[in-house]
Task: inverse folding
């Protein structure tokens, strides 16, 4: 699965002729500047760039429709089945970040439209 030079389903980026594993949000910056910029802004707006709350628990926000958002990128629970199929556990920071990249590459920014007033500036 290659889009914009990223093999996101397995957490690698093709950068300057070299395959590089993506393990942190800051690694996004080594992929494509446009992707790096929007993804960093989304994480900042969704979770203040944190996978965990002050007590060390994974950030989970329950929505009015009973769905919930998980982790640094506040990925909605409707994506859990797809994430699991791809081998991601959204409660783990690395997996949350890698699935967020997969989601961005495959669906764009629509999953984060609720916070777009914050990150689209």
Result:
């Amino acid at each position: 699965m290659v889009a914009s030079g990223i093999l996101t389903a397995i957490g690698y980026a093709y950068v300057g002729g070299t395959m590089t594993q993506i393990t942190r949000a800051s690694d996004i910056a080594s992929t494509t500047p446009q992707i790096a910029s929007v993804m960093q802004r989304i994480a900042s707006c969704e979770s203040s760039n944190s996978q965990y709350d002050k007590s060390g628990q994974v950030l989970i926000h329950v929505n009015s429709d009973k769905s919930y958002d998980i982790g640094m990128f506040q990925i909605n629970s409707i994506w859990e089945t797809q994430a699991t199929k791809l081998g991601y556990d959204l409660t783990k920071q690395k997996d949350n970040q890698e699935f967020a990249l997969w989601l961005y590459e495959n669906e764009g920014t629509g999953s984060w439209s609720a916070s777009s007033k914050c990150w689209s500036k």
